């Protein structure tokens, strides 16, 4: 009987505590809109950072433009990553990548030749895109359906640089 008595007392205490919990009001509710506000602030901050980076890049270009109109040949790994991520964003928004983030031929050719009527340039661009997509697949050991998310910025940068160089070669201009 003694064991049953302890059990009964424990049961009553648990039930009483549960009843009190239901009666005591919560101190606060987490608003459902909090994550949306944070997301808006993060997006705003990202936009501000982009503006700062682009402003610095334009400033540097204006300084360097006076010295030389030649293409800059050396970028730091961070600069390449930032440029690649911006390119990846552009590619994505203009539907020049597949669902995995890998650049696609038609999307890139359309992007690079928009408004161009010269058939030779369009042909050069198509050939360059094909060559460059093959090169990045070999370089990064990826396929259009197996690219790692961590590589999409690097691939975007390398494709852009490669296409620019290949089109320049085809059109008779040294990159």
TrEMBL record:
One GO location term (cellular component): extracellular region
One Gene Ontology molecular-function label: odorant binding
Entry keywords, A to Z: Secreted, Signal
SUPFAM superfamilies given in the database record: Insect pheromone/odorant-binding proteins (SSF47565)
Main location: secreted
Subcellular localization(s) per the UniProt record: Secreted
Domain of life: Eukaryota
One Pfam family hit: PBP_GOBP
InterPro entries: Odorant-binding_protein, PBP/GOBP, PBP_GOBP_sf
Signal peptide: 1-19
Family classification: Belongs to the PBP/GOBP family.
PANTHER family (UniProt xref): ODORANT-BINDING PROTEIN 59A-RELATED, ODORANT-BINDING PROTEIN 73A, ISOFORM B
Protein name: Uncharacterized protein
Organism: Rhynchophorus ferrugineus
């Amino acid at each position: 009987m003694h064991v049953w008595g302890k059990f009964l007392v424990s049961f009553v205490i648990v039930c009483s505590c549960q009843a009190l919990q239901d009666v005591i009001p919560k101190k606060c509710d987490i608003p459902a809109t909090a994550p949306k506000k944070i997301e808006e602030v993060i997006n705003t901050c990202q936009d501000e950072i982009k503006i700062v980076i682009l402003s610095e890049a334009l400033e540097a270009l204006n300084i360097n433009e006076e010295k030389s109109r030649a293409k800059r040949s050396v970028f730091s790994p961070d600069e390449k990553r930032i440029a690649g991520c911006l390119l990846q964003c552009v590619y994505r928004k203009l539907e020049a990548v597949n669902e995995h983030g890998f650049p696609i031929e038609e999307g890139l050719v359309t992007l690079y030749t928009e408004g161009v009527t010269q058939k030779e340039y369009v042909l050069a661009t198509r050939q360059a895109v094909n060559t460059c997509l093959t090169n990045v697949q070999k370089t990064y050991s990826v396929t259009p359906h197996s690219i790692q998310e961590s590589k999409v910025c690097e691939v975007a940068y390398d494709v852009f640089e490669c296409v620019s160089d290949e089109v320049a070669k085809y059109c008779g201009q040294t990159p």
